[in-house]
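One thing: could you explain this record?
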Amino acid sequence: MNYHGLKMSAGFLFVVVTAVGVSLLIGACDNGITNPPPPPPVQRLEIFPVNGAYEVDIGKNFYIGAHFHNQTGNPIRGERVYFSVTPDTVGEITPWATTEPDSNNGFETNVVFNGTVKDTVLIRGWVGNENIVALDTMSIWVRPPINE
């Protein structure tokens, strides 16, 4: 075959056309592997005792505050923070509160733990339902009143 002064064999032309076609097919194929989604932005929850002490008398209220920030450190408003106590036989805690960075304790309402028996408890606070996006814990001591 003579193409404008170039001599090509039919076999060479077949190889070139086949290579180009296979390259296009490979580039267009999906191997079924997808990249995982990017991780969610890092958010940080910090729970703390409002009065600064990590102990409370039996039958007295222990108030909990929180700071909830996004990845750049800006406070986040309007998120629900859930709470639990372990062991749950030691007392009761407000089950959740909504963040309000402009309040003194970081919530729209007070978060209160009231211990009923002497023990050390773990208070856990988290944001998110099925996927926890931020979590913090603290231990407090529920003690008999000092005057007794």
